[in-house]
Amino acid sequence: MEQSKFALEKKSWLGNIGGDIAGGLVTTFALLPETIGFMLAVGVPPYLGLYTCICLTVILAFTGGRPGVITAGAGSTAMILVNTVATYWDTHPEYVFASVLLAGIIQVILGICRFGNLVKYLPQSVMNGFVNGLAITIFIAQVRLILRDMVTIVEMIILVVIGVALIFLIPLTKKFIPIMAKIPSSLIVIILITLYVVIFKRPVLAIQDLGIIEPNFQFVGSVFKNIGNIFTLECLGAIWSVALSIAFIGIIETMLTCRVVTEETETPEQENLNRECRGQGIGNIVCGLMGAMPGCAMIGQTKVNLSAGGRGRLSSLVAGIVLAILLFFVNPVLKVIPIAALVAVMIKACYDTFAWDSVFKFYKLPVKDTVTMVITVAVVILTSNLAYGVGAGIIVYAALYWLDKLRLKRKSAE
């Protein structure tokens, strides 16, 4: 048994080196717009979200329980901190990081209590609603990015359309140009569009236009520097409910993302959801200590990783290392990457994420499954919170299931 575990661990690191390096490279760029955008929405400097991405991708490469999953600065967990940031950021920023730290501790405890086992009981209709709602939410976010700069919107749209077309068309050339089979089309599109914008000095929206991304270390160790403020009734009263929300929403989204990866890669033997819970908790503890935001698995970026060939732990590690290099050593290169290239990558991720069979073959499914999926999607879109959508889907499915049972019982009694 131990030998089997060692073999699986070795395979998760060395079984797909080329694909994992390619997946990690593309995923790095896919993380940027969403992370930066959500940090601005929360009201904190964008570089804090990038710190989260670096910490979590590197740490979860070693501690995670589902190879291929990308865990980073997700908006769903960060947005929980909006009120805490608005209330305490100017006076007690350490409260924000203490929330992240406490959330990580809770996640480790949940992992020890085997909370991850619960995801196997989730109905497929809720899963379909989860991925469909996410795909639509990501697409809406990309449209908002395109509309951010109305001056260059026409050129932006043209570049996005060309980028998406190339992502789909480049793989078709691998029969004639064998090297194309080894280079992710998403990475090629990012390079080509960036070169076009830089060489011809086009004034389209770029990473640098989203906010300040120069690294700063003023909040590193903030919890330790202000330890006296942490163990107070004011702090504990302010953070306990926030930490619980971050912990549970983060774990729920992560478990669902793990299930998607397992189903797509058909590698259930590589899935250990309780280890994933503990690993994510360790990652968020480190984020809290380092003065970064919370995070969880990001299904959109995970799909980007899978589409580019990433399957193992190395893909997550590569994404973290490359992002660290871009942020700390070649920041000018990071700044000029056009948003159009990243939007094109994410639109392809939306296409890959959406469960098309659940729509085109809905007439073959039981009514309760279709209703559950639609309500799950609706709640996800209306609240922009995947966990709320999943919760609503489970409640609706359970209600419809018992109504169906009662109907059958009455019919048999007649």
Question: Can you summarize this structure?
Answer:
This protein is mostly helical. The protein is built from 20 helices and two strands.
Compute the number of helices: 20
With strands numbered from the N-terminus, the spatial order across the biggest sheet is 1-2
The parts where pLDDT drops under 50 for at least 5 residues are none
Radius of gyration: 22 Å
One letter per element, helices H and strands E, the order comes to HHHEHHHHHHHHHHEHHHHHHH
Q: Report the mean per-residue pLDDT as an integer.
A: 90
Helix content: over 70%
Number of strands: 2
Distance between the termini: 54 Å
Strand count, sense and barrel status of the largest sheet are: 2 strands, antiparallel
What percentage of the residues does DSSP assign to strands (E)?
Answer: under 5%
**Overall 3D geometry?**
globular
* Oligomer designation: single chain
| Category by helix and strand content | mainly alpha
Layout of secondary structure:
Blueprint: H1 2-14, H2 17-42, H3 46-63, E1 71-72, H4 75-78, H5 82-88, H6 94-112, H7 124-146, H8 153-169, H9 185-199, H10 222-225, H11 227-230, H12 233-265, H13 273-290, E2 296-297, H14 299-307, H15 313-328, H16 331-336, H17 339-353, H18 357-360, H19 367-383, H20 386-413
